[in-house]
Design goal:
CATH superfamily of the largest domain: Aldolase class I
Radius of gyration: 30 Å
Number of domains: 2
Strand content: 15-25%
Shape: elongated
Strand order of the largest sheet: 3-4-5-6-7-8-9-10
Helix content: 25-40%
Length: 358
């Protein structure tokens, strides 16, 4: 069972700390100081890794496609989508050395989404900790095989994919001998509507493929990611920006620094709350049991030699005396000492033997 993978000197899988990935994507606005600050803010928020999208425009989309066909004509009028990518959205390759060093300087993992064998070769030159396959490439079997053969952990987004698409992708990756794979549940809407998330699918993914699962979250806010963690997601990926009002395709559904920190905080709290499957009683609960539970007490003053009857006892706090479930054991027993009204009755006050506890 491939339920765990290695990532940046850590494990990802059931019961392991969640790996939180801040997706910078195109939100750098092709400005080096901006992307440097984004890395710093992501580290300050407490994420585990930063992700870039690594691609060449002409590997990515036809020159005949316009931004207007993607609903982005206002952002990039009178241009092709290739030109918009090149001029505004591609992270310049000459920045990678400095940016990856900055990521490493913060002790974070580096993840690269690659879209072609050419961008894969470039990304490998910067020693990423993992490679990501975007949802749009779930059916791109040549790319899947090439990335799988690189020998690095893979994050596979499943947005827009049918069950058959996911099965095929896993088969291609397994055939290349890649076992360190996280299947990322994803809904390719921007933003994704809550009613379309179907986060319970995480359980079906993990059960069917016996691999760690994660969630690439395009919904607004942080609640969906926290719920995904509760349902078994070992990786959470979330788009990140310095300003949600900035122009560009991804800013509006991304998290700003304050909410990115909130995401990390709430996921860590969720991990603590999940704990494990064993029944545990905290030390505070044990103390509270004495204060809040009830014991057998005298219903009026009683004398030594009196027999215990239902009329002569009642149940009150505190809970350090004979518990209610032992009432039948003490009926008919006689008291060995006088007892005040509402005084807790203990086994030492009775002539009968205390039953063994299980």
């Amino acid at each position: 069972m491939d339920q765990f993978i290695e990532f940046n000197s850590r494990h990802i899988g059931p019961g392991c700390p969640v790996c939180i990935v801040a997706e910078i994507g195109s939100n750098h606005n092709r400005d080096l100081p901006t992307v440097c600050r984004m890395i710093d803010e992501a580290a300050r928020a407490g994420v585990d890794a930063v992700k870039f999208q690594t691609f060449y425009a002409d590997d990515f989309i036809s020159k005949h496609i316009t931004p207007a066909e993607y609903g982005l004509g206002e952002c990039y009028p009178q241009t092709t989508w290739q030109e918009a990518l090149q001029e505004h959205l591609i992270l310049p390759f000459e920045w990678y050395d400095e940016l990856v060093a900055r990521i490493r300087g913060h002790g974070l993992g580096f993840v690269a989404t690659v879209h072609s064998t050419r961008s894969l070769s470039f990304a490998l030159g910067h020693q990423p900790d993992a490679l990501k396959i975007a949802s749009m490439d779930l059916t791109n079997t040549p790319l899947l095989a090439a990335v799988a053969s690189a020998g690095l952990p893979m994050l596979i987004s499943t947005g827009m994919g049918s069950w058959a698409d996911i099965e095929r992708a896993v088969q291609v990756i397994d055939a290349e001998g890649c076992r360190d794979v996280v299947l990322m549940h994803c809904v390719s809407e921007y933003p994704a509507d809550y009613q379309n998330l179907h986060l319970r699918f995480l359980g079906a993914l993990r059960a069917a493929f016996l691999k760690p699962v994660g969630f690439s979250d395009h919904s607004l806010g942080v609640v969906s990611s926290v719920v995904a963690v509760a349902l078994g997601a070992g990786v959470i990926e979330k788009h990140f920006t310095l300003d949600r009002t900035a122009p560009g395709p991804d800013h509006s559904f991304s998290l700003e620094p304050g909410n990115l920190q909130r995401l990390v905080t709430e996921i860590r709290q969720a991990e603590q709350a999940l704990g494990d499957s064993r029944r545990r009683i905290s030390e505070q609960e044990k103390q509270n049991a004495v204060k809040y539970r009830r014991s057998v007490v005298a219903n009026g003053p009683l004398q030594a030699g009196d027999a215990v009857t239902r009329e002569r006892i009642k149940l009150q706090r505190p809970g350090h005396g004979i518990p209610p479930y032992d009432i039948e054991q003490i009926l008919g027993c006689t008291l060995t000492q006088d007892v005040d009204d509402e005084q807790v009755i203990t086994w030492g006050m009775l002539c009968c033997r205390q039953p063994k506890t299980t």
